[in-house]
Amino acid sequence: MTSRNLPGPRPYGPAAGIAAGVLGLGVAELIAALAGGASPLLALGDRVIDLTPRWLKEAAVATFGTADKPILLACVALVTLALLGVAGALAVRRLALGAGMLILLGAVDIAALLADRAGNGTAGIVALVVGLAVGIGALGLLTRPLRVPDRAPADAEAPEGFDRRRFLVSATAVAAAGVAGGVGAKVVTARRHPATTVAIPAVVSPAAPLPAGAELRIDGLTPHLTPVDDFYRIDIALLTPRVDIADYRLKIHGLVDNPVELTYEDLLAMPLYERRVTICCVSNEVGGDLIGNATWTGVRIRDVLQRAGLDPDADAVKSTGADGITIGTPLEALTDGRDSLLAIAQDGEPLTRDHGFPVRMVVPGLYGYVSATKWLTDLEVTRFADFRAYWTDRGWSAEGPIKTQCRIDLPGEEVMPGERTVAGVAWAQHRGVSKVEVRIDDGAWQPATLAAEDSIDTWRQWTFRWDATEGEHRIQARAYDRTGTPQTETEAPPAPDGASGYPTRTVTVG
Q1: Which of 6, 130, 225, 275 is the most interior residue, by most CB within 10 Å?
Q2: Is 83 helix (H, G, I), strand (E, B) or coil?
Q3: What per-residue confidence (pLDDT) applies to 158?
Q4: Domain spans of the chain?
Q5: Does domain 228-394 have CATH number 3.90.420.10?
Q6: What's this model's pTM, rounded to 2 decimal places?
Q7: CATH 3.30.390.30 given to domain 405-509
């Protein structure tokens, strides 16, 4: 079949660009994986995260929750494919134009690799340069039979002898080879970091038995302990870091008398404590679900810091994770006697990779953005005045005490008339919840019934009996901490130090 029976070359140019770009990217990903470098695609996604305005990040978390990163990565991939299509269309007119477009895209990715938070960008840059050369070569070969004279009209036919079927087979094979390279990169990464089975030693201080009445077991009410699979995950890592415990090192340095470096085995050999602690993300909207309660096992952070010896001028600890995150935590919260842990286990099992394996921080009373560093590799004792952390650089407050809050889980949006259960959970970590009140349709506040208190570091379930009458009703709730202070009615967004306001639920009875 010749060009005289075919449409012009324009539809095939973008296809050639996409196929060549996918091949180049697949080669780059595979080489980067073999060399232990950063993934070019993920580095670009990480850079997009870093440059995204705070308001847009909050909107993404509020809209997509824990699916925000897969959606972001999909958007980056779609935009990349579109730009590769443009490169192919340009190459049909002049190969230099298409190659220039690919080089421009590569330069953007190199800039992202140079800013790689985990410091693994160099090998990724070398891999990207090789992949870029392969992609440009493939673009030239795929567009050669499509090329038309510079002054040809936009609807010009493909050159004489163009074989549509051969082109499609070639483009498909090139794209498939790129996909195979990407899959190979994932296989190499998985084999480089195989799953590890760890036996958690016996603890010296187990968690206190759960008090009778702390778990109400009402259908639809949040359970007292959050299953690991349901536990929220909010972080900046597009791909969960894979840390080998054989090579793991935790460095404690800065304003200390004796810098310390601990292996994973060193941590397992230290006294282990087991505590139930509720942790919360600062991005949690009023009534939101970015919060969970679990049993954590780990080493007390104050024990590790005491081993290093603290400079009296220090007032903060800067922690770093394997994903490149930096977090600043008030030193007082790590040394004042609360159960701040270097956690190695959640609900009796080693941490999962998604939740920070092999080591993460758990600090009662502080939002995660100033305390819950996952994949922990470094603790620098310092002063708040001497550093800025990832989130404070983006406008969040330097210290993040968790605000007193509650959530309404029941009833649903539609119920039948009669006596109904209003229920939820309330939290004021490291202060404790003293009471919860409920009001219907802006009426008087009425006391709810609290479940037994587990500890001041965990949330409490609560219930309220409501005589539901036909019509539409508005239910609100508020919690008090043990100082007698109620949660504030003033509505505020999560930024810069946590959302506030009353949780509200509209229910139709009838």
Answers
A1: 275
A2: helix
A3: 55
A4: 3-192, 228-394, 405-509
A5: yes
A6: 0.81
A7: no
